């Protein structure tokens, strides 16, 4: 467990005021985000049958919380890590057309998460997915979509300022683009996290592209599941966050794999056995639409817009008692 302890931190809103601000941000953002990207809100599952291959495997290390149902003996049911794969299946199942998409309120449990100011075992995000054409699987499509998302986030700053002027955290006016290889070339002696901090501090807001594949050093910038994002067409939106003197990731997103990139990435990670799962067979057979999608952290966005020092100030999760007490010494009051 790790706590970044900002000096002289003083929350600008009471707990009750913070709850009102959280509700305002969540309700307003999802409406504006849906309109901007032409997305419809749909219901989503909290758990999935393991054998479908629809659950997000994240970086392949974290284990999903699982159980068995009384009426489905012998079948393993998993709490979702995210809905990265399920959304693509849902676009086909619900008959979404080209240019249309969906978003949903996703709640997950990641029991193996390392606790710190940005991470808890409870994950709440807007998962979204949109139908594109095969020929739209390009860097231009990716970057134009990133700009749309940044536009909504920036507009939310003004909305929050109007309602909670004493609490709003001001954001940069534009987003910049850089690849993970460009970061390694520039700072070969820094760790990937140190590179993220350096570029975010320099530019204010940045989209770091091409995450998952090996760089010239032989190591990836970060691990990514091999069977939803195309590692050449994905990335993370990061803001420099002065209250914690760190970069904060708000969204991970990308153009999704086609059959070719999925097989290549599964081979690289030694997980070709997944090709036998129903989801992967549908991709191989071109039975699922080509899509772009991602997740936007709800609590992270609230942190960013309200200048909070800890994710536990804007979401209710479970924390060790000593961790809660240590945070309180620095005016970080965990819900």
TrEMBL record:
Question: What compartments host this protein?
Answer: Cytoplasm
A Pfam family recorded for this sequence: AsnA
Reactions catalysed, semicolon-separated, are: L-aspartate + NH4(+) + ATP = L-asparagine + AMP + diphosphate + H(+)
Q: Which CDD domains match?
A: AsnA (cd00645)
Domain (Aminoacyl-transfer RNA synthetases class-II family profile): residue spans on this chain = 23-320
GO terms assigned for molecular function = aspartate-ammonia ligase activity; ATP binding; catalytic activity, acting on a protein; transferase activity
Q: In which pathway does it act?
A: Amino-acid biosynthesis; L-asparagine biosynthesis; L-asparagine from L-aspartate (ammonia route): step 1/1
On whether Transmembrane helix is a keyword of this UniProt record, the answer is no
One of the record's GO cellular component terms: cytosol
Q: Which family does it belong to?
A: Belongs to the class-II aminoacyl-tRNA synthetase family. AsnA subfamily.
What is this protein identified as? Aspartate--ammonia ligase
Recall the taxonomic lineage recorded for the source organism.
Bacteria, Bacillati, Bacillota, Bacilli, Lactobacillales
